[in-house]
Amino acid sequence: MLKRGSVLDLTRGKVTRVQNPVRHQVVITMRFYPRFVPREQADAYIRALAPAAELFSEFKERQRKLANHNSAFYLVKYEERFALTPAGIQELKKLSELSKTQDVTLICQCQDFERCHTDLLLLMARKYFQAPIQGPIFDYPDFTRRLTEAPEPEDLSRGA
Questions:
Q1: pLDDT of 160
Q2: Beta bridge partners of 106
Q3: N or C: which end of the chain has fewer CB within 10 A?
Q4: pLDDT of residue 17 exceeding 90
């Protein structure tokens, strides 16, 4: 199953590479590798699954000004703008296939009560690669509409 997790979950031991007694994959999907997370705690760091630099930068700037994560997510039109590169789509496909035989947790800095690009990755994985997913807890109507209108994952691609 494909799941969402946070850096905080990882550093506090809520998400680990071994979950009673099943081995599962922990994949960091951020623009930058998180400080204070030892490399041994993650199986992979896949930057291609992170938001585009421009979108991420605008989001962080808005988040700092507003001191409100979810409002910043909405105001930068994250759902309308989030897309993966072709390399990101291929990485998501691989993880989706893996999720059919073991748990795969996508890690980002966002906490459970915050909107996150990993939720959008989960929705893409379910739609395009039939991945079993857990969540998301939020509705993403604009992104869901985009998925409905895009028959192939490449239709949501942001180029190389």
A1: 52
A2: 4, 27
A3: C
A4: no
Tokens standing for residue 88: 């990101």
Tokens standing for 74?
A: 């909405």
**How far is residue 141 from each of residues 41, 76, 108, 120, 132, measured CA to CA in Å?**
34, 15, 21, 11, 20
The CA-to-CA distance between both ends of the chain, in Å, stands at 28
Contacts 24+ apart (CB under 8 A), 134-142: 134/1, 134/2, 134/3, 134/4, 135/3, 135/4, 136/4, 137/112, 140/79, 140/115, 141/79, 142/77, 142/79, 142/80
Q: How far apart are CA 84 and CA 62, in angstroms?
A: 22
Is the peptide bond prior to 151 cis by the omega test (within 30 degrees of 0)?
no
Model confidence over 19-41: pLDDT tens digits?
655 678 999 999 999 998 999 89
3-state helix, strand, coil in the chain (%, to 5): 45, 15, 40
In the predicted structure, residue 53 carries a pLDDT above the cut 90: yes
What's the token pair of residue 17?
């590479």
Segment holding 30, helix H or strand E: none
pLDDT, tens digit, 9 for 90 and up, residues 99-120:
999 999 999 999 999 999 999 9
Cα(21)–Cα(8) distance, integer angstroms: 22
